[in-house]
Amino acid sequence: MSNTDNNAAEIDINELGYEAARDELVGVVKILEQGGLDLDASLSLWERGEALAKRCEEHLAGARARVETALSAADE
Fold this sequence. Notes:
The protein is an all-alpha fold. It has a single domain (3-75), classed as Helix Hairpins. Helix content is 82%, strand content 0%.
């Protein structure tokens, strides 16, 4: 992994907005698809990817709830 990748791994996922988490997840997937990493690096990257995917889902669930709340308020 490069220094940029190491710096990304140090960023707290809970601090990332949806777009930042999604963009980093896309990068993680690309790196894993290229292969060439040792097992430990691959597992670490995969774990970060899973955490990023979960963070994206949290953002989407929150957005979905806000839309549903707005729609139900508009129906009243």
